[in-house]
Amino acid sequence: MFSKILIANRGEIACRIIKTAKRMGIATVAVYSDADARAPFVKMADEAVHIGPPPAAESYLIADKIIAAAQQTGAEAIHPGYGFLSERASFVEALDKAGITFIGPPANAIAAMGDKIESKKLAKKAGVNVVPGFVGEIRDTDHAVEISNDIGYPVMMKASAGGGGKGMRLAYSEKDVREGFEATKREGLNSFGDDRVFIEKFIEDPRHIEIQILGDKHGNILYLNERECSIQRRHQKVVEEAPSPFVTPKMRKAMGEQCVALSRAVDYHSAGTVELIVSGKDPTGESFYFLEMNTRLQVEHPVTEAITGIDLVEQMIRVAAGEKLEMTQDDIGIDGWAIENRVYAEDPYRGFLPSTGRLVEYDPPLEGWTDDGTANGRRGVDGIRIDDGVYEGGEVSMFYDPMIAKLVTWGETRDEAADLQVEALDAFRIKGLGHNIDFLSAIMQHPRFRSGELTTGFIAEEYPEGFEGAHASDELLRRLAAVAGVIATADADRARRIDQQLSGEMYAPGDWAIRIGQSEAEARHYLVQIAEDAIMVDDEAVELSFDYTPGQDMVDVEFSDDALTAQLTPTRTGYAITTRGSTQHVRILPARVAHLAEHMIEKEPPDLSRLLICPMPGLLVKLHVGEGDEVQPGQPLATVEAMKMENILRAEKEGKIAKINAAEGDSLAVDAVILELE
User: Residues near 129 by Cβ (< 8 Å), separated by ≥ 6?
Assistant: First the structure.
């Protein structure tokens, strides 16, 4: 076994690998850029080596710097995590020459599976079902249109070396192909250094299923069941679970055996994942097709660990050291259900725009992942596991992936795991930047998610107009009104004691007019009366209990039949109360003066429709118009790159370009005015 390994990665996956290595008694070396100098993974490692400035192309992607760090510290092996150099065959070959072991698959397997065009040819030869499409060289946009017309719409354009949802475009028409083909090539070139694109048939009502593979250097290859990753946004996974609610034992066996056959075809060893697409319209579940093989550890590996009890990082290290797998296919079982949600720095209320910045407050439901060396350890604490690599006061940088943390829950049943997600998400506290916690909670509560009727179009279909918060039932709003009344009474009581304007024998106000809603048009009104022996909402009693001290920003509330955690943010006239996947804006007024509120004039927001405003920090890649141009609704005006993804900003109305305030190549701040219409 190795005595020291280097982790050629950062963030949560670096922390994850270090934890297992320490449990195995292996010393660890971290490498870090300027942006990560104070990151948790740097502090956790036994040694750390600085490798350059923040851009990955000048630090984490430079193989020579990684190899030099390993030689300098005496590390015998390198674990690449995922992303960066994890699927670069040339890196593995360079390590071989340097006499350093790569904790991952052989270079030939990475090369074969890393090229999506060649991997499809290999899969077909190995007897694996493949999606109909064109896997040759595409000359130009006209050729792409010709191919798409032959295949039949809809089609998916993909960068050959792509991954992580980047370099992918769905086209429903010739117009979509002409508009998206060049953008797909650019994303492939910018993110992966390869602008080749292939086109394949888009499977309708698709479900994304993947099989976890584990093999050793002695010819043993196993499949560790499946994960379902159908809930995606812009082809980026958001929710993953194991097992899949769709896959039957017969499907699992057929999928697993095909994926093992593909792995054998390239002499695979270590952990890997074969991604499949399944038609949800096929009740037999037999219409599954090969998408790609990821020759590395997956972001969503914890859900497989939770249901199998197998530490995948440990197995990767043992395989790299030459050990045989200690388990056989018959030993692989399914114990319970696990769900993983990816907590991202993005604002779902503003079209999921990236939200970089400082974590002013960061308080997850528990203090990170605890592993006691047993299966239960891989399920965290009481079924809740947090894999993260950030810290309070740290920054979510524009240079790297916007993921803040992975929240993993385990339960005996799927509903138990989902209920635990809602509970844990309510207790997750993040301030300083936008995040998607409300959105994740809304998905966990959604009737369609609970039914297991999933497709990769789930988010687009269920939130076609964007996300506005989870639906709040009448009963929940009524209970939140009661909570607001109790808080208002406690605040008023504290105020009178501090001011000393009333004698100590007098009660604080107890009758409140509560409005829940951001505007009068959508508001719900409640009369809340707080007495020593009862809490009344519109003359109906609400039984609840919670401890609250004025100034507190989170409360745990117990009802007679339920419980919830609510986060409180003071506003000018009350509180914003966040719980169960939505933020409720609560106005609180003493009942005796509430009727005067109707005479207050609401402030009209300014008309910004003639301005094209940059919705996120990013790089202005392309201006599609010039001053004096006439534009129509929906016409592309500018393309902004943020978090390595291109975002096309379109005209909202007809008009003429009066002024352009930015040039291609400019770095733009959020809310920067790119151009103005007359």
Answer: 258, 288, 289, 290
pLDDT number for residue 52? 97
Burial group, residue 476, by CB count within 10 angstroms (0-12, 13-18, 19+) = middle
Burial 94-127 (b: 16+ CB within 10 A, else e): bbeeeebbbbbbbbebbbbbbbbbebbebbeebe
| pLDDT band (50, 70, 90) for residue 172 | very high
- Spatial separation of the C-alpha atoms in residues 425 and 565, rounded to whole Å: 9
77-79 and 101-102 strand pairing: parallel
> Residue 538 corresponds to which tokens in the numbers above?
């519109």
Comparing CA positions, the residue from 239, 348, 232, 346 lying closest to residue 583 is 348
Residue 425 burial (CB count, 10 A):
27
| Closest to 96 measured CA to CA, from 78, 73, 82, 109 | 78
pLDDT digits (tens, 9 = 90+) for 431-449: 998 899 999 999 999 999 9
E strands, 285-402, are: 288-294, 337-344, 346-347, 353-354, 357-358, 361-363, 384-388, 395-396
* pLDDT for position 557: 96
Residue 294: how many CA atoms within 13 Å on its side-chain side?
21
The pLDDT of residue 6 is above 60: yes
Instruction: Dump pLDDT digits (tens) for 585-642.
Output: 999 999 988 888 888 877 777 888 889 999 887 889 999 999 999 999 989 999 998 7
Domains of the chain: 4-103 (3.40.50.20), 132-201 (3.30.1490.20), 206-335 (3.30.470.20), 336-453 (3.30.470.20), 474-596 (3.30.700.30), 611-677 (2.40.50.100)
By annotation, the residues acting in catalysis are: 292
pLDDT in tens, 290-305: 989 999 999 999 999 9
User: What's CA 554's distance to the chain center, in Å?
Assistant: 24
pLDDT score recorded for residue 655: 93
- Tell me which H or E stretch contains 101: strand 101-102
Beta strands in 164-309 (DSSP E): 166-171, 197-201, 206-215, 221-233, 236-242, 270-279, 288-294
